[in-house]
Amino acid sequence: MRDVFANRTEAGRLLARALAALTLVDPVVLALPRGGVPVAAEVADALHAPLDLLLVRKIGAPGQRELAVAAIAEGPHNEPVIDRETLYFSGATMDYVERQAEVERLEIERRRAAYLRGRPPLPVEGKTAVLVDDGIATGTTVRAALRALRRRRPARLVLAVPVAPAEAVAALRGEVDDLVCLSQPAFFRAVGVPYVDFHQVEDDEVIGILDTHWQRASPATP
């Protein structure tokens, strides 16, 4: 287990080493933006795999936006994934979740247009889909992403993160075929704690990383 990461780039390289041991066939790497993108780019480069995004938005509790009561993933048939216990204790209602889901769907559309600029989602049917984030807190957002990804019928679904609480890892194992997590702190406080550099990843950084990866992956023109 790794206790400290210099930054997301180092975490991605270490994660790629762990994933290499799985001998993944025909992998496609999907990042959860924004923080998962620098991690996933290192994984995709190491695995010589294409890189895409899977856009998911957290639905925060009323007055506590960081406390996820639900999450919604991109896709025409995806409904919010609810954290029933947190929903109950926060006092949020299903009407509130549905209203916020519409707001977050619009933000998903904005981000896909900004980040991918018309690129369609990469096909994952029959392939190994590797979902990557910079860490997991409660698991609600990742669960929504995994369920959306499973509907796209990959042959194998892998979740890879540098850090997560043990209870979240245990709860998510049933959603995937393989799960790689480098650090499960005994006393989990926040995703950013094991990172020396855990700066806020902005849109420009996401776009720059994607452009760099795509340029490397594209065959040179004569």
UniProtKB/TrEMBL annotation:
Keyword Glycosyltransferase: yes
A Pfam family it matches: Pribosyltran
Source organism, top-level taxon: Bacteria
GO-annotated molecular function: glycosyltransferase activity
Region forming the signal peptide: none
Transmembrane segments: none
Record's keyword terms, sorted: Glycosyltransferase, Transferase
Ranges where the Phosphoribosyltransferase domain occurs: 19-194
Protein name per its UniProtKB record: Phosphoribosyltransferase
Species per Swiss-Prot/TrEMBL record: Azohydromonas caseinilytica
